[in-house]
Amino acid sequence: MPKSPPADAPFPGEGHAPQQAPDGAALRVPAAPVMPDADLGTWPTLAWLLVLSLLALVGLDPYLYGLYNHNITVPFLARTLDPTAFPADPLVDQLDYFYSYFLRGLALTHEATGWSFERLFLVGQFLSLFGSLWAMHGLAFALTGRKDAALGATALLAIGLRSLAQVWTLEPIFMERSLALPLQLWALERMLRGRWWSAFALAGLSFPIHPLSAAYAGFIVGFTALVRQTRRPGVWLGGGLLFLLGAAPSLYLKFTQPSPELPMFHPDGEWLRILRLHSDYHVFPFSWPLSSWLRAAAFVVATGFALKGGMAGGLGAGSRPAAAGQPNTPAAFRRAGTALLAILLLGLIGTLFTEIVPLTLPLQFQFWRGFRFFFYIGFAFLAALALRSASGQTSRMYALPVLVLALVAWTGIARHLTLGAAAVMAVLLFGPALLERLGREPRKAHSPAALAVLLLLVAGTTAGYSLKAYGFSAESRAQAEWVDAQHWARDNTAADAAFIVPPAEWGWRVESRRTSYGDWYDGTQNFFDAGYGRLWLARMENLGYNGNEAALPEAYRALPPEAFARAAQAFPEDQPVYVVQYADAAESSATEGLETVYQNPRYHILRWR
User: Fold this and answer.
1) Taking the CA atoms of the chain, what radius of gyration do you get in angstroms?
2) Were both Cys, which of 306, 429, 442, 555 would link to 385 (CB 3.0–4.6 Å)?
3) End-to-end CA gap in the chain
4) Dihedrals φ, ψ of 598, to 5°?
5) Element containing residue 515 per DSSP (H, E)
6) How far apart, in whole angstroms, are the C-alpha atoms of residue 57 and residue 127?
7) Which are the contacts of 366, defined by CB distance < 8 A and separation ≥ 6?
8) Integer Cα distance of 307 and 310 in angstroms
9) What distances in angstroms separate CA 248 from CA 178, 200, 270, 306, one per listed residue?
10) Rounded Cα distance, 568 and 562, in Å
């Protein structure tokens, strides 16, 4: 971890004549601002990150297992370990179009350790959180030159926040995107320091883990290099080759196992219709609610004012070249501004080639999901602005409205997390003054150590509320009766048994490890195989879907016997088939005469054949 400059070292620009910055812009010399008087040190910083990671796991970004992407990831992992798992299951057959080595890595770890899936995913989530927070700490320091701002930015990241296109800045579940994030944040950190080749290499190395988010990181680094190193084509050409080298394993899978049902450029109308039907919240920005746009816009504007306030106050306007291992703040500011522009450009491309001129690859890459990278840079700017205001370098009348505006982005999540984010901002803005009133020496009141203690108090209180309200579990967080029914199926039916389940109830395969006819969430795989998407929609219609997702439970309760018969015909004649029905409809005419083999207050399982 890089060391901070000595407490008496001149701030960038102090005591030096103006000169050309590495990126070519002339810089003015500001008055020297007050710097933090001490660094936490390497080991205390690592301890801080470990504690904050634990608090994020249990409450700030509450961990989930068995929901959302795990509905697909867990059965995919089971198939990776056992090619005979989930016979006659079209969803799990989509593993062929999964161009990531994430599952291979998990499978090797599972076989080497003998850990259960639950323990494997929990450990993976904790390591992902720690890696992401550590990288955020490095990124913020590279951008601001302040270790106290790095602490503040890390605390802001630790509190879960949902970005545009329904993606979290820090994922609450362990999956490809969460494991790839540390590499991508380190890539941004290297970019901000002007270490272009290592930035490209890190972004490329994340590609075999999660190609989609790696493409966003690669675009951000590449665009910034192109703009800031225009006269040095070797930087971005060589860096681009490094990125492609890292991405090569996944690109090999893509080109050797292409989907037979998906045109390379111009998608067919049916594929687009199913995408709009199931996944509009990921990829079609014109369908998103105004509230999500307002929250994003508030953060963009706040970040702009935070950047401007830092520049006007001298934070990014020094001219002294960076010493080895230290941030070159002026150049980092310019690179960060260009990176923010690249992120907005990603969104513009995503809008143009999804809503206006639909093209297959932009639709698959869901470019608006890259907007979350705006937050990572924004957190650093906001933390630095608040702390500059706390030490009198920037007016509180300027900083306070900016922070309140940024806080709007947290209003779409749980209230206690919104309050936690507000408390973190209050600590950054007013914490040093509070410590001075409590009798601390003025310089000590601005130390990173004192700030870390206050931030941990806020984080611990927020996480404690989450624990009290929701508890913590490494097991599935799905509805208890739904999980119990799955456990019965896993323990009491043949490994090749197939189940027809209520389509509104997601994730039957996670705990049962049994083939499913399909549920609504399965439709997300339409992104990668149009043929599968058509099959999925036909099955949903057979189970009662008539254009209204909310009506699926009632439609399933009212299914006629022919619907179950058609569903059972989808499986080989020698494959056992069961029906999972809601308890209040288990005696309906559609299942009359079938043997009930399991029941709980919500669900009955009946043997079809």
Assistant:
1) 26
2) 306
3) 62
4) -160, 145
5) strand 515-516
6) 10
7) 165, 212, 282, 283, 350, 527
8) 5
9) 21, 13, 31, 38
10) 10
Between CA 524 and CA 553 the distance in angstroms is 20
Per-residue model confidence as pLDDT tens digits over 544-558: 999 999 999 999 999
Distant-in-sequence, close-in-space partners of 565: CB < 8 Å, separation ≥ 6: none
What contacts 601, CB < 8 A, 6 or more positions away? 481, 583
- H/E stretch holding 597 reads strand 595-599
Select from 37, 27, 23 the least CA-distant residue to 320.
27
User: How many Å apart are CA 24 and CA 422, to the nearest integer?
Assistant: 38
Task: Report the alpha-carbon distance of residue 221 to residue 199 in Å, rounded.
Answer: 7
Q: Which residues contact 49 (CB under 8 A, 6 or more apart)?
A: 130, 133, 134, 137, 154
Contact predicate 275/537, CB 8 Å: no
Phi, psi of 245 (to 5 degrees): -65, -45
171-230 pLDDT tens trace: 999 999 999 999 999 999 999 999 999 999 999 999 999 999 999 999 999 999 999 998
Mean per-residue pLDDT, 4-18: 33
What is the pLDDT at residue 172?
Answer: 95
Six-digit token string for 168: 């979290």
Q: Using alpha carbons, select from 559, 516, 558, 523 the residue that is nearest to residue 538.
A: 523
pLDDT score of 257: 85
Roughly what angle, to the nearest 10 degrees, separates helices 290-312 and 372-390? 40
Residue pair 265/360 in contact (Cβ under 8 Å)? The answer is yes
Alpha helices in 257-370 (DSSP H): 269-283, 290-312, 329-351, 360-365
The pair phi, psi for residue 579, each rounded to 5°, is -120, 130
pLDDT higher than threshold 50 for residue 84: yes
Q: Which residues of 361-374 are buried (b: 16+ CB within 10 A; e: fewer)?
A: ebbbbbbbbbbbbb
Residues pairing with 167 in the sheet? 163
Is residue 166 within 8 Å of residue 355, measured between CB atoms? no
Query: What six digits make up the tokens of 337?
Result: 């501004």
What's the CA gap between 253 and 97, in Å, rounded?
A: 8
Distance CA 399, CA 305 (A): 9
pLDDT at residue 231, rounded to an integer: 87
Angstrom distances, CA of residue 379 to CA of 76, 170, 367, 500: 35, 13, 21, 46
Neighbours of 579 (CB within 10 A): 23
**Stronger pLDDT, 277 or 587, i.e. the higher one:** 277
| Stated length of the chain | 609
- Measure the CA–CA gap between 173 and 509, rounded to whole angstroms: 17
CB burial readout 484-502, b (16+ within 10 A) else e: bbbebbeeebeebbbbbbb
Query: Strand ranges (DSSP E) for 158-303?
Result: 162-163, 167-168
256 confidence band (pLDDT: 50, 70, 90): confident
Residue 276 is classified by DSSP as H
| CA–CA distance, 590 with 411 (Å, rounded to integer) | 45
In angstroms, rounded to a whole number, what is the distance separating the alpha carbons of residues 608 and 499? Answer: 9
In angstroms, the CA 17 to CA 21 distance is: 12
Reference 391, options 313, 459, 322; nearest CA is 313
The residues pairing with 516 across neighbouring beta strands, listed in sequence order, are 499
3-class secondary structure, 39: coil
* Tokens representing residue 66 in the block: 């068995």
> Residue 489 to residues 65, 418, 483, 503: CA-CA distances in angstroms?
19, 40, 10, 17
Instruction: Tell me the β-bridge partners of 607.
Output: 578, 595
